[in-house]
Predict the 3D structure of the following.
Amino acid sequence: MVLAQILLNGILLGGLYGLMALGMALVWGVLNIVNLSHGALIMLGGYTVYYLFTLAGIDPFVALPIAMVVMFAAGFALQWGLLNLVVRSKMLNTLLITFGLDVVLTFAAQLVFTADFRTINPSYAGANFPVLGLTVPVVRLAAFCVAVALAAGVWFLLNRMPLGRAIRATAQNLTAARLYGVNPRKLYAITFGIGAALAGAAGGLYGMISNLTPYMGASLTAKSFVIAIIGGLANPFNVILGGIFVGIAESLTALYIGPTYTDVISFGLLVVVLVVRPKRAVRAA
Amino acid sequence: MKRLILPLAVLVALALAFLPMVGSDTMVQFGINALLLATLAQSWNILGGFGGYVSFGNSVFYGLGTYGTAIAMTNYNLPFGVGLVIGVILAMIGAALVGLPILRLRGPYFAIATLGLNGAMMAIFSNLPIAGSNIGLVLPLARNDAMFYELALGLLVVCTLTVLWISRSRYGMGLIAIREDEDAAGVMGVNATLWKVSALVLASIFTAVAGGIHAYWSTFVDPASAFDSTLNVRMVIMCVFGGPGTVFGPVIGSFVLSAVYEVLAAQISTAAALLFGFVIVLAVVFMPRGLADVVKGGRAISWRYFIRNIRENRL
């Protein structure tokens, strides 16, 4: 029974992890930028929802789309004004610049939001209902549903809409896409914006389930990366599945080995995945 | 210009060696920190600058050096020198163990795999009773800042000489070949895995000694200070700012940034870290080949140089 409950928690949390990784996988697959500031964008999204909730009194789930729009604008501006300047240089440089960006965002957040732990705590935060003897927390279930819905949205965008076709074309061949009338600067900015918006949504949901601190970004970046590799960069639903896999692995570690070891496990998992499936990893990049 | 650099470096090193006799206590303490950081940046340069493999996990070797020294000195009452050796051996084993699986990964995969290293090590050490768990270890007191200063300076000199040797040797050429095109390097007979792992092990030696010196100097070690992830940030930034893949770039870069940081930290503490982030962002945009490239050839710094850098890399 305990095991079933742990598995359920892992699956619900894993859906959210998948959403975190979705934005990173999109940016990575299309722009060929491994965005090390992805976790910081998740953090910013979380704080946006937090302040919309505490200062403006907007329900967190209503605030979520607002935060996504805000984060889209921020991501668009970042790519347009800064990352487009270095996107053609070596991978080393794009890694370093997003790393620097992560430091800037983290410490700017520390200055503005202070280092206190924050939780988005709506009145229904503790609500749950029993199903087959298991306890289902309402907020976690809702977060899972939002994650799946957004993954479906990304799938629809990429496969059924002209913008998605342009994005996929650019990912395959930038020069050819350009010949067909795609403006790469704008398209890159839009793609990064979508990635940031997904990160923002993930941050808002994460803030309801866990704590927000300015420093939460680094570990979430690493986690997103693991999941993006496990799930691959092509299909949004696979990314969600990858997230569920990591969520379950973490929950089981916390139960059987001890909660302080979850970091060790996700790192170990990353190394195992990278070493066991290097072919696939190389192809993805 | 090129002929002048080496004698100039020797002169600067000699002049620095006399600092404890003339400088104030605070200056010597600032010097120890700056020299240790420069050593970290320089040793990061071996794999990161020459080999082109960005590691965000080198602070792990610093931590292993720190803990190796601390455990040997407090739990077994061994002298400092033996402690350092134990720390170095620990770090070398760690580097080989970590390097063998993850150095098979290329580019961003390696970089991200190293991101998790620090957290994982911290979790392990805060659960080890021999390392004082979460509480940490207190080392015997040694109030001799001049000695630590000379040790740190000596370490930096040895590290820089090693990098100088690398830059002129067949070994270094192999690393540069790996950075430029790993497949082509393999075709030319460079055993990439061996080269990369040995570069990481080499870097871990200097990093661990720096950690050991810092442990004995500060006389206190705990998981948060030994596995300080901001240390990674600093060593990478200092090396990249100065010029990755050059001999003196990382040293110059870290001296300049240490001084800037010191002045800023005295005025506004959190903003100093923020400024560091800005430095790395601007450095990547405007001088992707580092300060050393700007200075090289005595070129007068003009805005055209920066514009050209942007033009090369923008979309």
